[in-house]
Amino acid sequence: MKFKTFAAFVGPSIFLMLVFIAAPLISVFMQSFYLTQPVLQAVEVETCTPGFLTQTCTTEIKNQPILDEAGKVVTRTEFVGLQSYRNVLEPEAAWAAISSGRIGQLLTIDFWKALRFTLTFTLITLPLVIGLGLALALAVNNAAKAIRGQVIFITLLPFIITPVIGALSIRWLFIGDGILTAGLEWWLARDISMFAQGWTIELLMLFYRVWHVAPFAFVVFYAGLQTVNQDTLESAIIDGASRWERLRYVIIPHLMPLIIFISLIHLMDSYRVFEEIVGFSAQAHRISLQWLTYDLLTPDDSGNRSISRASASAMLTMIGIVILLIPLLRRTWADHKGAGH
Questions:
Q1: Predicted TM-score of the model (pTM)
Q2: How does pLDDT run across 66-78, given as a tens digit for each residue?
Q3: Which residues are bridge partners to 67 per DSSP?
Q4: Which of 138, 144, 252, 333 has its CA 20 to 30 A from that of 153?
Q5: Range with the lowest mean pLDDT among 12-16, 90-94, 122-126, 329-333?
């Protein structure tokens, strides 16, 4: 292929990636080292109580932002180095909690609390999604052709639903006097509040993520099962291999590239968990790294946003994703080199 033809095909994609991925990433990285604050000035403010004869006035000094000619707040940007990362990580308080063995105290720090939930959410849902997706694919692949289409359609429904809508639907089933909560209360003969404690909310979020994402794994695995070498399977059957042995030594090795692919997609997606926090209104009990970045960007009562700390939180989130992906990427690279030889 000529270079001009190659550039014509690849050039637009590279340009869009630079504009919409690389440039924002560099901007966030740079903003994490700078702190922008409004310029304040001390102003005397007089406050008077209602009334005329008994009116009492007091004067106090308040700091108010300076406005320019257009009425906008004047700001000052200064280089703070790694201070924003220190403000997010709180290393002194974290180390004090770890050295004293008080893990509960460590989890009172927003970043470490969010990191604990994010890692738990990601690493628990990953094997469940792969296992359930593979089980569904095997079941559908062995089902009668007459019902295979209907089963595939029903299995794909959770994946089609918009994430926030799906999370809200699960929440409505359990919150207050929801249908499933009412059924559990009748069965157990006791009052149940699924949203009064953090661990039950976390279980519901884990359930929702597996329910929502497993159909994606199912589709990929089902497509992969159509390419399994039937001669190899028949040979294994003739040699007396059981169903489990055929699955372990023939099917799973054949599907291993797809397992790695699904793991990569799931790790990148789950580590950025956000919809579940919003859909289940879980921020009072559980927060994620992505939600922490969003919370830092939310304006406070005076309209200020912690852009520097939010940028540092976003960069730490990306570093965490890279660390999780390194083993899978190394495995993919090793398989690629082995196939090349």
A1: 0.83
A2: 777 777 777 788 8
A3: 73
A4: 252
A5: 329-333
Amino acid letter at 67?
Answer: L
d(C-alpha 282, C-alpha 198), whole Å: 8
C-alpha dist (Å) from residue 130 to 136, 137, 167, 272, 305: 10, 10, 20, 18, 39
274-292 pLDDT, tens digit each: 988 988 888 888 999 999 9
CA dist 26 to 21, 139, 268, 297, 305, Å?
9, 46, 19, 18, 19
Q: Which two tokens stand for residue 95?
A: 């180390």
Query: Hey, where are the domains in the chain?
Result: 110-332
- How far is residue 325 CA from its own chain's centroid? 14
CATH architecture type of domain 110-332: Orthogonal Bundle (1.10)
User: How many CB atoms neighbour CB 152 within 10 A?
Assistant: 17
Q: How deeply is 116 buried, as exposed, middle or buried, from its count of CB atoms within 10 A (0-12, 13-18, 19+)?
A: middle
Give the tokens for residue 116. 């604990």
3-state secondary structure the chain: CCHHHHHHHHHHHHHHHHHHHHHHHHHHHHHCCEEEEECEEEEEEEEECCCCCCCCEEEEEEEEECECCCCCECEEEEECCCHHHHHHHCHHHHHHHHHCCCHHHHCCCHHHHHHHHHHHHHHHHHHHHHHHHHHHHHHHHHCCHHHHHHHHHHHHHHHHCCHHHHHHHHHHHHCCCCHHHHHHHHHHCCCCCCCCCHHHHHHHHHHHHHHHHHHHHHHHHHHHHCCCCHHHHHHHHHCCCCHHHHHHHHHHHHHHHHHHHHHHHHHHHHCCCCHHHHHCCCCCCCCCHHHHHHHHHCCCCCCCCCHHHHHHHHHHHHHHHHHHHHHHHHHHHHHHHHHHC
Rounded to the nearest integer, the mean pLDDT of the chain is: 86
Instruction: Tell me which of 186 and 216 has the higher pLDDT.
Output: 216
Query: Which among 85, 117, 69 is positioned nearest to 270, based on CA atoms?
Result: 117
Mean per-residue pLDDT, 195-222: 91
Tokens for 262, please give them: 């699904």
